[in-house]
Amino acid sequence: MTRQLTLAALLAQVSMVRRDALAVVDDRERITHAALRARIDEAATGLGRLALTPGSRYGVQLGNSVTALAVLFAGWAHGAVPVNVNRRYRATEVADLVDTHGLRGLITETHRAEEMREVTGPRGLGLAVPGRDAADVLDVLSVPVGAVPVGSRPDDYLLFTGGTTGRPKAVRWHQHDAFLAAMHPRNRAEFVRTAEELGEHAAAGGPATLVAAPVDHAFGQWVAVATLLAGGTVVMTDRRPFDPGFVLDLAHRERCTDLNVAGQAFVTGLVGALESGAVVPAGLERLVTGGAETHDRTKRALWQHVPRLQIIEGIGASETGTLGRTVQTADASAPLTPRFVPSPGTAVVDEKLRPVRAGEEGRLARRGWVAMEYLADEAATRSRFPVVAGERWAVLDDAAQLEADGTFVLRGRLDRVINTGGEKVHPGEVEEVLLAYPDVADAVVLAEPDERYGTRVVALVVLGAASCDTEGLRAWARTRMAGFKVPARIVSVPAVRRLSSGKLDLPWAWEQLEHG
């Protein structure tokens, strides 16, 4: 296959047919496609001052803004290779990424420049950003990484994983495959073959999507780029912490058709804001969520306020792009456990990469449009990306069950499966039972060491009523699942803390269990 679809070429084609249409709205400005092109060229000039030649890698540590998108596309347009850097990372964490993956530059916010001198040394150049005050100029920092730079191909697409299971890995894609796997416009069923074909479709315009998920993670970045390439408008906000009332008001003011958030914690915030009288966005048609599951009760509560809303849940990974999606509406019957329609190439397989039969569990995997490797980790690459009969697969540590209709149900990460006395327990299954209890607002299930059984099941729960006690909850759960699945210990917490990506804050969870 000729990999001719590059992200910059695709955007250039869309910009030609949507020149005067609104492209991006952020907390400070609104720009057309023509103005976005100018911003990308300005950012490219700044990159040039760093001597970022084709194939040079650089980190982008920015929030949701026009500038973040411009800095990404500037690299893709001129052959340098941007890679997302989590904004929460401190200098020592960034230094580790720089050393391990050969970053030649770092683009960060001015207020972090002094902190990042620990990584970059005294050198640093200001990147002028048109339309912004001098106080908001970003710093482009030159990062010394040794005498021999480590480079990439100019058509590479790089992503740092979230580090959920340890140190973040750098995932390397071809841009062509990443576009088709993760950033293809969702309002187009058939896959495009040329940039001109995409431009023809984008000429009619696309959705207005409020991207509340962070673009320093894959999910938010993918949704933002997909919206631009559909000829739509990306509405972005960088308010921290997440302000659900503001997000709903912004979606209403900008007439957004789509809202993108990262799972349960954020949807819960939207429900709370609506219950407190926040505006219901008049044009909102779809809630696009991923990164973490959204509970049944939360969906039902949201539909009480926005009954017309489609809730689109996606599942994906940095190594695979979008593995599947499900669309649910207010008339859906309970339970609302997502049954994902697989994306092209997605399969549930056994240990020999053979498709499982309906009703069986296996690993989630994808072939075709998948990443190529983990940079600087050959062992992990061999394990994650096996080549079978000349075709590369990406095999994940997520368990799923294949249904008779070809959909699949996610069972949870295999590395989270709890072995208690020889019995296997999927945390998600236990969480589903706990959440069915009327007075449980949120729950997360983990394992802790046990002298007798090796490990035992424990849970953190958010109780919605003072009258609810954890022992009563355990007794109720015992009537609905096998005794070995019932949490041996339940700790009540005011709220379950999740990261900006929607995933559980594991260090916080272990601390609650230790002191609970």
User: How many beta strands in the DSSP annotation?
Assistant: 27
Distance between the termini: 56 Å
The poorly predicted ranges are 125-137, 144-149
Number of DSSP helical runs:
15
| Spatial sequence of strands, sheet with the most strands | 2-1-11-10-12-13-14-15-16
Task: Characterize the main sheet.
Answer: 9 strands, mixed
| Shape designation | globular
Mean pLDDT: 86
Indicate the structural class: alpha/beta
**Beta-strand level of the residues, as a percent range?**
25-35%
Please bin the fraction of helical residues: 25-40%
Spatial extent as radius of gyration = 23 Å
Polypeptide structure, described:
- With 516 residues, the protein is α/β, with parallel strands linked by helices.
- The chain is 30% helix and 27% strand.
- The strands form 6 sheets. The chain has a 9-stranded mixed β-sheet with strand order 2-1-11-10-12-13-14-15-16, with helices on both faces.
- β21 and β22 form a beta hairpin.
- α1 runs parallel beside α7, α4 packs parallel to α5 and α10 packs parallel to α11.
- It is globular.
What's this model, at a glance?
The chain is built from 15 helices and 27 strands.
